[in-house]
Amino acid sequence: MKKKFLDSKSYEKVPVNKLILLGIYLLTSKNKGPNQKCKFEALVKECFTLFPKVFALSYYPKWPDTRKLDRPLRALRKRKMINGDSKTFFVLTGLGKREVKKITKTFRQKRLL
What we know:
It contains 6 helices and 2 strands. A hairpin with a 5-residue loop joins strand 1 and strand 2. It has a single domain, classed as Winged helix-like DNA-binding domain superfamily/Winged helix DNA-binding domain (Arc Repressor Mutant, subunit A), CATH 1.10.10.10. The protein has 113 residues and is mainly alpha-helical. Helices cover 55% and strands 5% of the residues.
């Protein structure tokens, strides 16, 4: 999926977990080989850049809110879609990669909820 700025209406109704999975995928797909890792700070930047309306602070919309990634990341790890933690890095599991394929297909077809 090409990285481009999306209209906020096209992603605001998409669950945060799916947006985070997409962010991890985009960051890890840049790296080839065994270095397909995603650091937490890079994920915050990527998610905020792509989906600013969802990942911004309420009163300061020009700044990212890292708390909006905390619980969803734990839920994704519990559901076995990602491995890792915020102190090291994140990687997609096979289940996570299959989910990303569904998400990218939805964005391409613009069948968002």
